[in-house]
Amino acid sequence: MANILQHILANKRGIPVRGYVDTIVKAGKEGIISPELSSKLKPFFDFRNSIVHHYWIISDEKLLILVRENLNDFERFAEEIKHLF
Known about the structure:
mainly alpha; about 0% strand; 4 helices
């Protein structure tokens, strides 16, 4: 998701980003995806940063809860950006 959004922001809108979290926030503000979906997906981007930078504090339970409770947001993401291509 981050790579797709970063590509759209940079190549179609000329907007630079500073990392994954900045990407999801700007995508919501720019209307690439809805602000609501941006807010719902942001915890996944935050969690990704925790995995990469602080792997010793990762909770498998937290990841499973995030995915189980928000699985449909991944499908919604695909639907919201489909019209851009």
